[in-house]
């Protein structure tokens, strides 16, 4: 280590030595040559070594040997069984409410469309969402509004923060039908208050759809306890399912019979193998599945849920926030003088598992960091995001990235 930032490497070494999750790093595939610092696990998590073995077994065993019989033997149930496990370990969801399938964009469409149709029938045509939400969420909402005649109500939060209860309240009324919020804002890392926002929307007779892409597998998400209606999330960020890993959806038991999703496919039918005329939705959460689920792409998700189950989500969250605190501390101490700002909440209770830095030359800085094998990501216009996936990221790696940022800016 260059030691450009006095004491930082030493502090990182001490934190790594005391880290109860340090052993988890060896569970992940080590690249050849190894990357110096990977800080983008919030966009694409690293693969677990167990996943290479699981894929091998899938190809040779369940697919190569059992062939089509595997659908009956395990795959028909897989989206629901894996959903239940994910729900228990990461989402605070009782069985029968979580399923895996589709991409986040498609699943978001299905659940949002179902919620808006239900709300419109109840004379509540407004869909409330915020301008800082991830592009896909805004675009899907625009499409659903065009299709249904729903009215979009835009919240414009402070970009350095996110959706706040008091601000949201000003936009809730008797015409509010659905509220769409991301639990953790993809840019600022602001963590919205899931329980309070859900309760406020409920008070107004609206349904809430939470996007958990940046919190699933890393932060506590107590869906049942907060009485959440609907949620979707991604499996390839902190849940390490890999590129193209499917989304997951949550539909509270009390809503499953009431809502109709728009992509009525044979796999959500009450009797898929009868193949009869007319769609008849399955009982329970299966009705939200449309077609054949991506079995191979679920392997990494299964392995990450098993690992989180082993170590406990609480330990994962604790380390995520400690890594974030380390970043904030070092930036304040050493990088503020070089024009680097912290654009994420400083309060760990309001922050997700990435820390957003700002610098006027962020784009060029990020490009040069990638050249030296230090990998965060850039977001328009002046943002570098440091993703802190706690199972696979060391404090030393974070220190290396911050040293490189200091060197390049100097
Ligand atoms: C990553 C992310 C998505 C991604 O959607 P895909 O369909 O998987 O491309 C959607 N919403 C949010 C909030 C995200 O962070």
UniProtKB/TrEMBL annotation:
One of its GO terms (cellular component) is cytoplasm. One of its GO terms (biological process) is L-kynurenine catabolic process. This is Kynureninase. It catalyses: 3-hydroxy-L-kynurenine + H2O = 3-hydroxyanthranilate + L-alanine + H(+); L-kynurenine + H2O = anthranilate + L-alanine + H(+). Belongs to the kynureninase family. It holds the Pfam family KYNU_C. It is an enzyme of class 3 (hydrolase). Its cofactor is pyridoxal 5'-phosphate. Homodimer. Its EC number is 3.7.1.3. Catalyzes the cleavage of L-kynurenine (L-Kyn) and L-3-hydroxykynurenine (L-3OHKyn) into anthranilic acid (AA) and 3-hydroxyanthranilic acid (3-OHAA), respectively. GO terms for molecular function: kynureninase activity; pyridoxal phosphate binding. Pathway: Cofactor biosynthesis; NAD(+) biosynthesis; quinolinate from L-kynurenine: step 2/3; Amino-acid degradation; L-kynurenine degradation; L-alanine and anthranilate from L-kynurenine: step 1/1. InterPro entries: Kynureninase, PyrdxlP-dep_Trfase, PyrdxlP-dep_Trfase_major, PyrdxlP-dep_Trfase_small. Keywords: Hydrolase, Pyridine nucleotide biosynthesis, Pyridoxal phosphate.
């Amino acid at each position: 280590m260059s030691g450009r930032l006095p004491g930082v490497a030493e502090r990182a070494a001490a934190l790594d030595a005391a880290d109860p999750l340090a052993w988890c790093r060896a569970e992940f595939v080590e690249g050849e040559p190894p990357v110096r610092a990977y800080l983008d696990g919030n966009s694409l998590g690293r693969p677990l070594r167990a996943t290479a073995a699981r894929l091998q077994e899938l190809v040779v065993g369940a697919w190569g040997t059992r062939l089509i019989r595997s659908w009956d033997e395990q795959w028909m149930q897989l989206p629901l069984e894996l959903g239940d496990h994910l729900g228990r370990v990461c989402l605070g969801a009782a069985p029968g409410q979580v399923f895996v399938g589709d991409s986040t964009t498609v699943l978001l469409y299905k659940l949002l469309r179902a919620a808006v149709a239900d709300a419109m029938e109840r004379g509540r045509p407004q869909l409330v969402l915020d301008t800082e939400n991830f592009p896909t969420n805004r675009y899907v909402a625009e499409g659903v509004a065009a299709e249904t005649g729903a009215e979009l109500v835009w919240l414009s939060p402070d970009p350095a923060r996110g959706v706040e209860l008091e601000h949201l309240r000003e936009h809730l009324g008797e015409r509010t039908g659905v509220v769409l919020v991301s639990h953790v804002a993809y840019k600022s890392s602001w963590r919205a208050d899931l329980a309070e926002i859900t309760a406020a929307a409920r008070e107004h007779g609206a349904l809430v759809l939470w996007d958990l892409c940046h919190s699933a597998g890393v932060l506590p998400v107590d869906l049942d306890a907060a009485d959440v209606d609907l949620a979707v999330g991604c499996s390839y960020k902190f849940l390490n399912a890999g590129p193209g890993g499917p989304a997951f959806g949550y539909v509270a038991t009390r809503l499953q019979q009431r809502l109709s999703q728009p992509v009525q496919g044979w796999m959500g039918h009450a009797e898929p193998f009868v193949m009869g005329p007319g769609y008849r939705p399955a009982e329970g959460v299966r009705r939200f599945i449309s077609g054949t689920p991506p079995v191979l792409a679920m392997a990494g998700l299964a392995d990450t849920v098993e690992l989180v189950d082993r170590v406990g989500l609480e330990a994962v969250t604790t380390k995520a926030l400690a890594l974030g605190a380390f970043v904030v501390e070092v930036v304040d101490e050493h990088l503020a003088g070089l024009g680097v700002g912290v654009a994420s909440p400083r309060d760990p209770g309001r922050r997700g598992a990435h820390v957003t830095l700002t610098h006027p030359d962020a784009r060029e800085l990020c490009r040069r960091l990638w050249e030296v094998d230090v990998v965060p990501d850039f977001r328009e216009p002046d943002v570098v995001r440091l993703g802190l996936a706690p199972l696979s990221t060391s404090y030393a790696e974070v220190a290396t990235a911050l040293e490189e940022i200091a060197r390049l800016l100097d």
